[in-house]
Amino acid sequence: MNNHDLATRLLGNAGEDAGCEGALARLAEYVEGEFTGHDMTRILPTIAEHLRNCPACAEDYQGLLALARERRGV
């Protein structure tokens, strides 16, 4: 296995996953979009893909979602 194949296995294909930095940069937008009724998995598919595959970012997402719900009284 060459270095490119190993990197692809570890990091995924370009464009399919935003990565931690990309996901965290748009996490508030993602949560806000969900609260306004938008299908964020369609609007920001690379963020959605990353949240499905990264437990650490998914935990941050769940925390932000809980905070948003609490502040909105949901």
Question: Overview of this structure, please?
Answer:
The protein is mainly alpha-helical. Helices cover 76% and strands 0% of the residues. It is built from 6 helices and no strands. Helix 2 packs across helix 5 (45-53), helix 3 crosses helix 6 and helix 5 (45-53) packs across helix 6. The longest helix has 18 residues, at 55-72. The chain starts with a helix and ends with a helix. The relative contact order is 0.16.
Which tags fit this structure?
globular; single chain; mainly alpha; 74 residues
Please report the number of helical segments: 6
Class computed from helices, strands and strand pairing: mainly alpha
Q: End-to-end distance, in Å?
A: 50 Å
Total strands? 0
Computed Rg:
14 Å
How much strand?
A: under 5%
Helical residue percent? over 70%
Mean pLDDT: 85
What is the ordering of alpha helices and beta strands? HHHHHH
Please give the structural blueprint.
Elements: H1 3-11, H2 19-25, H3 27-35, H4 40-43, H5 45-53, H6 55-72
Helix pairs in contact: 2-5, 3-6, 5-6
